[in-house]
Amino acid sequence: QEQLVESGGGSVQAGGSLRLSCVASGSTASSACMSWFRQALGQEREGVARIRSDGTTTYADSVKGRFTISKDNARNILYLQMDSLKPEDTAMYYCAAGPLFPCGLRRQTYNYWGQGTQVTVSS
User: Fold this and answer.
1) Does the CA dihedral 88-93-97-98 come out positive or negative?
2) How far apart, in whole angstroms, are the C-alpha atoms of residue 51 and residue 84?
3) From start to end of the chain, where are the E strands?
4) Over the stretch 44-86, which tens digit does the pLDDT of each residue have?
């Protein structure tokens, strides 16, 4: 059964850090492209970071230098290390899996989604 399960969200003060995890099972575990998206209240879901099976990464401009995406292929876990958090990072964060191409930050290209984990950053 294809499944993505996120964890690690919570409430932190501005400047703090969180690490999100996403456990992939079934066919999602071998996905060539995995990403993190986020959706703030009343906003569209936006791509945050993605990683290809070859290890290459892409980040949204808003998180460059603060967030790091990585994957433990042996354990099929996707991570998002979030440092220097800002109140505007507050959102529900989702893990997504998709094919090798295009593997961008557009939500339409992803086949599987997790249920999300909430991140709240207070000022």
Assistant:
1) negative
2) 21
3) 3-7, 10-13, 18-25, 33-39, 46-52, 57-59, 67-72, 77-82, 91-98, 112-113, 117-122
4) 999 999 999 999 999 999 999 999 999 999 999 999 999 999 9
